[in-house]
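A sample follows:
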Amino acid sequence: MDVLRKMRSKKGLVAAACALLLLLCGLAVFAALSGDGPDGPGASAGAVATQFCTTTGDYSVCTDQADYVPEATVHVTGGGFIPGTSLAMKVTRPDGSTVTGDGSFAAWPTAYDTVIVGDDGTLRYDYVLDGINGEYLVEVLDADGNVLASHTFTDCDCSCRIVIDKVTDPAGHSQSFDFTLTGGSWWSPVNKHFSLTDAAAPYDSGDIQCGSYTATEKTLPAGWNLTSISCNDGNSTVDVGARKVTIKADKDWNKCETVKCTFTNTLRRGTIIVEKQTNPDGAPGSFAFSGNASGSISDNQQIVVNDLLPGTYKSTEAVPAGWDLTSISCDDSNSSGAGATATFKLEAGETVKCTFTNTLRRGTIIVEKQTNPDGAPGSFAFSGNASGSISD
């Protein structure tokens, strides 16, 4: 290495001119790298167009971005180095620890990945970010541990946030719904359990690592459906059937995302039915009802009222002249009839039918026999609906 440095010194201006030419080429040279030169451990497999560079004397070190999202791969390139030499890549994290490109910890010189400088004096190297936010320093070291060149870049230096809100139909219902929020990375996992009502403030995760998370509404309370999940970003994946959403909380140039997802639950509606039966069956006439199920119906007809929330409902018959209301029967265990009124105790999603049975009142015909003179003997025979033999 010392011999090579002396050769470079002797060449003086020629070497400087070559280095200057290389720097002027800059981004075009790095973008055109084909990967034909020898690569050491941790070197990139393909060409990378660099955008942000730091120059130290004859050397330059560049990254393809100035700032990265968590777990991104940083593509490092360099120029102006002696072809064929083996150089070490040292990365210092924001917490002061030094690591290799594969994230392992060790002391110099075995800790750091090495690269072989290509024939054109360039190098390439990839580093996978490992979850510590802030500024990173990448240095190129020679065989003696001397720093030839360096460059800085940043990982996400802000935090993302996830907000989960609950909406119910009907609005303001007191029912509570249980949730989980899971995800994140191995170094910053999230596993939260919480409950929400419509009136409660939305759940706020607070500052969390940007990344992928799953919000799940747990077992639904009886009588409720999950009817929609909506989020305010464009890259969350909703699965209403599974009651979950996969949230991609991202960072874009120091603007960390707050993703809000709203779970809407609808209380299942029910139906009440009033049915008319007459005795004798098929008797003519109309029967009027008032209350929650209202209208006029005849024998074997129904009044149907749909889309009712759970609750108590009533329907009362105005019994026509000549009829008796002889029974009210309901097909569930907690609805009932009293007098001329049926009381429906409707639960979520239930259909309750109450049947009103009316009996036509019976009458009497009488045939009476009178004689003149009064009390005359003898018997008189009759036929028809009133038949038989009678005397005075």
About this structure: The first strand starts at residue 52 and ends at 56. Helices lie at 2-11, 13-25, 27-31. Residues 13-25 form the longest helix (13 residues). The chain has three helices and 32 strands.
